[in-house]
Design a protein that fits this description.
This protein has about 300 residues and is an alpha+beta fold. Among the domains are: about 135-200, HSP40/DNAj peptide-binding domain (Sandwich), CATH 2.60.260; about 205-290, Urease metallochaperone UreE, N-terminal domain (HSP40/DNAj peptide-binding domain). About 30% of the residues lie in helices and about 20% in strands. It contains ten helices and eleven strands. The protein is elongated and about 90 Å long.
């Protein structure tokens, strides 16, 4: 297996944030859902996922850096004799020039325990928790706002049902406990960490706890006002248009934005009116030809077209 640092393209002294950013970038680029039928992309995705599983776990990263486990997370075979230890890193660690100053008795016991069968060495039969596995999932905009359950197909063919809670934001990570790699020696399984990517909606846009949209209205609805049906993430509702509303006017529907969650109150929905003329009929054309407004306005005055 390749060096996990090289797989993610980070240095050995990289911070956890550096590792997380590198993984997210590569996972988005090579995810099988975004590269259907591309075996090479799937293989790269598996590699970066395995590398992130190891390096994002401080304990496993330390074991790998010390040579106790390999890049796949498996224990390295112990050295066969005390001479091997003395000539390697362990021997340099315990020698102190002309004496035994600074001698580590616990490490000494580890050496002779593994070299002469007097113990299990590092790891041994101790139960060990399985590693977490990282995945990404693209959710529909309304599913992320209202909540839903979505099935995720893993690279190895397994499927997981991911419950997306209401008010899920783009980039939020869900944790499915016990759905990661199996533990060793009776240890518990790791977790599945699923990063949610929210797909854009064709007219709704999220702004924190609020939802924004452009709402088309007719000329008569804008001029005369009245009650119309407006869409919201939870379904259509009645909305009152004030008489004399102009194009670009913004109306608010309280509590119709992102639902309440985590102690945060429900957001509002802001609708910006867009007056749609459509194809004018003869009656409207004839009216406009003879209509003289009592207070004419210049809609382009604010543009300062004239010096």
């Amino acid at each position: 297996m390749n060096d996990p640092y090289k797989t993610l393209g980070v240095k050995k002294d990289a911070s956890q944030d550096d590792i997380r950013r590198a993984y997210r970038k590569l996972a988005k680029q090579h995810h099988p859902d975004l590269n259907p039928g591309n075996a090479k992309a799937e293989e790269v995705f598996k590699g970066v996922t395995a590398a992130n599983d190891l390096l994002s776990d401080p304990e496993k990263r330390g074991q790998f850096d010390r040579g106790e486990i390999d890049a796949s997370g498996q224990d390295q075979a112990p050295r066969s004799s005390y001479r091997d230890y003395a000539e390697g890193d362990a021997g340099r660690r315990y020698s102190s020039g002309g004496g035994f100053g600074g001698f580590d008795t616990d490490a000494f016991a580890d050496i002779f325990g593994s070299a002469f069968g007097g113990g299990q060495g590092r790891g041994g039969d101790t139960p060990r928790r399985g590693s977490d596995e990282h995945y990404s999932l693209t959710a529909d905009f309304l599913d992320a706002i209202n909540g839903a359950t979505q099935r995720l197909t893993l690279p190895d063919g397994r499927t997981l049902n991911a419950k997306i809670p209401p008010a899920t934001a783009d980039g939020q990570v869900l944790r499915l406990r016990g759905q990661g790699s199996p533990g060793r020696n009776g240890g518990p399984a790791g977790d599945a960490l699923i990063e949610i990517h929210v797909a854009p909606h064709r007219f709704f846009k999220r702004d924190g706890q609020d939802i924004r949209m452009e709402l088309p209205v007719t000329v008569s609805e804008a001029v005369l006002g009245g009650s119309i049906e407006a869409p919201t993430p939870a379904g259509p509702v009645k909305m009152r248009i004030p008489p004399g509303s102009d194009n670009g006017s913004e109306l608010r529907l309280r509590g119709r934005g992102v639902p309440e969650h985590g102690g945060q109150a429900a957001g509002d929905l802001y609708a910006t009116l867009r007056v749609v003329i459509g194809a004018p009929d003869e009656a409207l054309r004839a009216f406009l030809e003879t209509w003289k407004p009592e207070h004419p306005t210049d809609p382009r005055r604010s543009l300062e077209l004239h010096p």
